[in-house]
Amino acid sequence: MAADYYWYRPMYPRQRSARGSSSEILANPASQERLLQSVDPAYGARSLQKTAIVELTKTLFTTPVGHMRQLVLRLTFPDGETPPYAILSHTWEEAEVTYADLQDLQGTHVIEKKGFEKIRSSCYAANTDGFDYIWIDTCCIDKTSRNADLTEIVGAINSMYRWYGEATICYAYLADIVSRDEMEGSRWFTRGWTLQELIAPRNMVFLNKHWNVLGTKSELRNEISKRTRIPVDILMGKMDLEQTSVAQRMAWAVGRQTSRMEDRAYSLLGIFGVSMPLLYGEGEMAFIRLQEEIMKATEDESLFAWTSRSGIHNRLLATSPDDFNESSDVIRKHEGYSMTPKGPWDVSNRGVHLELPFLVTSECGIGLAILNCTRRGKENQSVAIYIRDIFLTFERFQRIDCKRLALVDLSLFRPNQYPSRLMTFQHQRKPSPDLSLYLQLNARPEVLSMEVVAPIPQSPRLKFIDHRRLLHAVETENAGRLLDLLSYVNVKVNPTYNEGRTLLSYAAEKGNMEIAWLLLSRRDIRADKEDDQGRTPLSYAAEAGHINIVWLLLSRSDVNVSSNDVSGLTPLSYAARSGNVPLTKILLSQSEIRRHIKDGNGRTPLSHAAECGRHDLVRTLLDMSDIDADEPCKSGQTPICLAAANGHANIVDLLITHGVDVYSSSNGISAAKLAADHGHLDVENVLIKRGAYLPPDLVRVHALRDSFFMN
Fold first, then answer.
1. For a FRET experiment, which of 56, 131, 494, 607 has its CA 20 to 30 Å from that of 593?
2. 3-state SS, residue 672
3. CA-to-CA dists, residue 437 to 228, 234, 319, 405, 449, angstroms
4. Using 50, 70 and 90 to split pLDDT, how confident is the model at 706?
């Protein structure tokens, strides 16, 4: 143990242990000096300080052969040279003996403290078992004010698990019970710190309130496992902690209490093999920070498999170990659900960033994030959490309906139905009252209609049906009838109707989310099938402005988001022409669309919006830094020329305000000329006020026109 901490070495004159030889006697200064010199000389007196040699008039305890002497040393042992030692696990009570108390052993007030009996008895137990050293947390860590930087306390807490693991024996003192039958109700099993003190030691002896042996950890393993939910193989050291899921380990801490809220997190550092600074006063953020440290050390997604009784939390990370109460059977899946490697997890001021498969439900914006873990006995299914796409851009998410976890059998779905997506879960400690109400309302069963996360089962009632009945159900938006028809065997979901259109094409144009979801839940659906005009369901949904259907289609990996129809138009083109600002922003949030922002005619969404006079959308697009306001299409037409030719004076003025040249032209024809040719006087006036030069023939036309109106 390469750190300065306080060890107590009890000495007994010529006392022989029932289990071995007597302890070394250090009854004189020469013997003590030999002990000091026996440690690595590199540490020297700098690391070994003899702090007290006390012969007690009131002995720690009386032995048949005499009184005990105690040598208190401040020792630093190099790694690998720590002598065998015992360690005590107990629950703190009133009047515990501290390190400062042991500096004043000559005063009777220390020996008379209630906690001194614990020191006396544990030293006796250690000496009886042949140990020269014992470590006791209450008095072996210096918590005095001179350590204002808390360096010693921080080091101790971050090293505690290792110290208990390296001890030759651990004495677990259960101060509130007498018999083995009472063990389950002992306070020792309810404290946060005793969890790691139970798991880490290889050899452990349980003692009752009278310091009589109740049994060893090995002898009591079944009772302890039942009480704590910790597998016997973990207790016995036959299984590494890393072989259990994060959720399982968190579940072991459920119900355990600490004096300070932050210690519920700090007491778990060793269980997860992480370390972090201690910030007393941060409250539940300590547990958030613990989870962030765990994310740096593992890719175990069971970290997110928790539930909350309130159900209104909207963060990805839990706020307490108690949130894992129903996760003790959550285990990792050895096989992945994707052949594509995932990116690393990251935490920033924006939130938690990670990649997870996303399976949509029948409610717009709501879906399931599939975790690479399962429940014991349900290995063919995957645990999933309900999440909401906040802005329908597949970028920023929040967890919803935290009262439950879902189980999904992915073998019933095609991989293109649950593609992996890079998600950001924003930080928010506690929802505001308005948000809490919003989350509660949107967690209702009728909203979260994803109880059945499997494709529609088929019934052998009929062999074939008239597919016109399917079309009628879609056109009349009769979801119940459609569900009934889709359950028939051999039913086709991709038949073509007028101009090669499909059922999904009509459903997308109608904008009925439930109808579209029922069709898309079929494994054999062709979500991107083109009709005779080259148009897809996404194209029709975008033109009609149905954000919910667009979002549903974008959630899949088998939809070409930038497909051109025979007119060269893309879904983005249709959204821009209709002037739908939210929908256009959603489409532009997709990286694939951003890479192919021009349609088959080389036109940008700004070009279409300017031509159609969509002022709000033009302004929105101009505010985007990567939009070229004067970029011509394949035919050479610029946005300002298209706006001028179609008489949109306000858009012409807006484009000029954003830096477009008033002399911008299309194939050599200026915007002013186009406006004049189409009789748009208001556009001409805007251009003139903005400094545009008018050719002589246009000046004469203006003069004649002004003269006509004046007369």
1. 494
2. helix
3. 36, 43, 19, 21, 19
4. low
8 Å CB contact between 40 and 26: no
- The per-residue pLDDT for range 485-543, each reduced to its tens digit, is 988 877 889 999 999 999 999 999 999 999 999 999 999 999 999 999 999 999 999 99
Report residue 513 CA to chain centroid gap: 29
Amino acid at 330: V
Pairing of strands 351-360, 62-63: unpaired
**Contact between 280 and 378 (Cβ < 8 Å):** no
Sign of CA dihedral 555, 557, 558, 564: positive
Amino acid at 383: V
Residue type for position 398: Q
**How would you classify the pairing of strands 382-389 and 366-370?**
antiparallel
Please give the CATH architecture assigned to the domain spanning 602-711.
Alpha Horseshoe (1.25)
Cα separation, 280 vs 278, in Å, equals 6
Q: How would you classify the pairing of strands 382-389 and 346-348?
A: unpaired
Asked if 202 and 220 count as a contact pair (C-beta separation under 8 A), the reply is no
Q: What residues form DSSP beta bridges with 348?
A: 351
Backbone angles phi and psi of 163, in degrees to 5: -65, -40
Which one, of 636, 638, 614, 637, lies nearest residue 628 by Cα? 638
- Return the H-helix or E-strand segment holding 296: helix 285-297
Backbone angles phi, psi at 459, to 5 degrees: -110, 145
Nearest Cα neighbor of 519 from 486, 541, 472 is: 486
Q: How many residues does the chain have?
A: 711
Q: Collapsing DSSP states into helix, strand and coil, what is residue 476?
A: coil
- The CA–CA distances, whole Å, from 445 to 391, 392, 682 equal 22, 21, 55
So where are the chain's domains?
A: 5-239, 244-449, 602-711
Q: Which amino acid is it at 528?
A: D
Secondary structure of 537-606 in HEC code, one letter for each residue: HHHHHHHHCCHHHHHHHHCCCCCCCCCCCCCCCCHHHHHHHHCCHHHHHHHHCCHHHHHCCCCCCCCCHH
* Cα–Cα distance list, 311 to 284, 399, 494, 522, 699 (Å): 17, 10, 40, 31, 71
Token representation of residue 360: 């949509």
Q: What are phi and psi of 612, to 5 degrees?
A: -90, 0
Q: Determine the distance from the C-alpha atom of residue 419 to the mean position of all C-alpha atoms in its chain, rounded to a whole number.
A: 18
pLDDT digits (tens, 9 = 90+) for 392-433: 999 999 999 999 999 999 999 999 999 999 999 987 655 444
Rounded to 10 deg, the angle between the 649-657 and 681-689 helix axes is 20
Take residue 38 and report the two structure tokens written for it: 């026996």
Say whether pLDDT at 180 is over 70.
yes
User: Quick one: tokens of 336?
Assistant: 């992945």
- pLDDT of 168 strictly over 90: yes
Judge whether 286 and 262 are in contact, CB under 8 Å.
Answer: yes
Q: How far apart are CA 357 and CA 304, in angstroms?
A: 14
Residue 81's pLDDT band, with cuts at 50, 70 and 90, is confident
Report the Cα 58 to chain-centroid distance in Å: 57
CB atoms within 10 A of CB 438: 15
Q: Among 378-387, 505-514, 690-699, where is mean pLDDT lowest?
A: 690-699
- DSSP secondary structure letters along 67-82: E-EEEEEEE-PPTT-P
